[in-house]
Amino acid sequence: DTKNVVQESVSLRKNKPVYVVLVSGTNVVSATIKKFTHSKWSHAAISFDPSLEELYSYTFATTEYAKASQGLRRESIKQLNNLGGEICVYGFYSGNRNVKDMVKAVHERIESGKTKYDLGLLVKKAFNDNAEQSEDPNKKICSAFVNSIISEFVGKISDKVSPSPDDMSKALIS
């Protein structure tokens, strides 16, 4: 009987889960992103929803999984499954207040309507793995957005200014 062998060591009254979702898509856009970022992964998103039906990330094209214009958008795991390939989910707990503040920050950025995908940063990363982000705080790539939200409210995931999804995966494993 393994029922009592493992107990939850985190108080769910004081802490909430945060999920980082990485995708290794198989389409042409995903292949290009993986090549430019020198990464196994082509996409990163953050979620506060255990069902992963509500994910947040930056996208740069109108596609089947993000029908709106470029920038910060809401996605779901079902939509990301349409990209084909592997999906990896990392989870951790953070204090209720931190998670509430992260959710609020994400929603405020979406509602501002000012977010844009930083295609220039993606191109720069092909030549410089630690390329600097745009000075415009509304311009990001997906992994830099996830990193910035977590760094702002919980702590750094990566020492890189604009980590690739692969950098995030390596940091979350260690």
The amount of beta strand, in percent, is 15-25%
Radius of gyration: 16 Å
Main structural class: alpha+beta
The major sheet is characterized as: 5 strands, antiparallel
Average per-residue pLDDT, rounded, comes to 83
Uncertain stretches: 63-68
In angstroms, what separates the terminal alpha carbons? Answer: 31 Å
The number of distinct helices, counting runs of at least 4 residues, comes to 6
The shape, in one word, is: globular
Strand and helix order: EHEEEHEHEHEHH
Short description:
This protein has 6 helices and 7 strands. It starts with 14 loop residues before the first strand and ends with a helix.
Describe the protein's topology.
Elements: E1 15-24, H1 28-37, E2 43-47, E3 55-59, E4 71-75, H2 77-81, E5 86-95, H3 96-112, E6 116-117, H4 119-125, E7 139-140, H5 142-153, H6 165-173
Parallel strand pairs: 6-7
Antiparallel strand pairs: 1-2, 1-5, 2-3, 3-4
Helix pairs in contact: 3-5
Main attributes of the structure:
globular, two-stranded parallel ribbon, alpha+beta, 174 residues, 5-stranded antiparallel β-sheet, 6 helices, single chain
Could you characterize what this model shows?
By secondary structure, the chain is α+β, with helices and mostly antiparallel strands. The protein is built from six helices and seven strands; from the N terminus they run E-H-E-E-E-H-E-H-E-H-E-H-H. It has a five-stranded antiparallel β-sheet. Helix 3 packs across helix 5. The longest helix has 17 residues, at 96-112. It is globular, with a radius of gyration of 16 Å. It starts with 14 loop residues before the first strand and ends with a helix.
